[in-house]
Input
Amino acid sequence: MSLTPVAEAGATSLVAPAFDRRRAKKKAAWRRRRIVLAFMSPWIVGFSVFFGYPLVMSAYLSFTHYDLLSAARWVGLANYRYLLGTDSQIGPAVRNTLWMIGVSVPLNVIFAFGVALMLARAKLGAGFFRTVFYLPALAPPVAAALGFVYLLNPATGPVNIALKRIGIDGPLWFNSPSWSKPSLVLLGLWGVGATMIIFLAAVLDVPKHLYESAALDGAGALSRLRWVTLPSISPVILFSVVIGVIQGLQYFTQAYVAANIAQGQAAQAGDASVLNLGYPEDSTLFYPVLLYQQGFRYFNMGYASAMAMLLLVVAFAVTLFIVLNSRRFVHYHGAVR
Output
């Protein structure tokens, strides 16, 4: 049965507003997307230029021989085969890096947590002491390394002079293979203020009623620390460990500066055989230091790119492993298991 002209006109008038509303909604949605993209464009451009493009180029160069002076030449997996099976410096570099992560990260977390506990209980001068402990974190890494090399100078440093006055022969610090990495650990502990501030905020945020309930149940100070404080701040501990491991895998500036100054002092003293990265005796040859040496000292940029890609994969895998296994010891307030 056909519609009359009047009925057809009425049906058309009903469909047209619905179509116009859908088209207006689509235009509004696209307008919102353009506005979001406009606000995000600085980040998108920065991410693409300073992270995305270098990452893609590093992945490509890792399969080439490239010396910065001539065009890159495709060599396939040769860089990775040399990296994983032939390079004799990889072993010491990996061992030094693992040593730094295994020793420095736990000590930094424990020290920062201990300082945060003391500052949380301070009654007088709490603001002053918080500032004092945080100030070293503001020092640039190069300046901090220079200061510690001066303080720990075996011959003229104030630390060894003070130890000598009380009858102790101080170690050679950065000039000793046995003490170079512990000296870097001391430097890291001195600049632990940023981690300390995070722990302090977490400790102060622990609900007071939990401590009160534990005290009513007869829990002592250590029990309250074990069963109240640590579970409550466990997400912060996880964060600090993950960040510490990632920074340990990328540990470069302090080791590079301290080793260069120390070997310069040794060269001035007449030992010309120490002019190499990783002084003394490769004890400060960390993986990023070796990467820098291959890329910007020997101009093996293809091989350095392969090292960088391996470092990226290892950092991602270690972080993923820690996060996936964190459910056993990390407790989130209000989380549903």
In short: The mean pLDDT is 88. DSSP finds 14 helices and two strands in the chain. The radius of gyration is 29 Å.
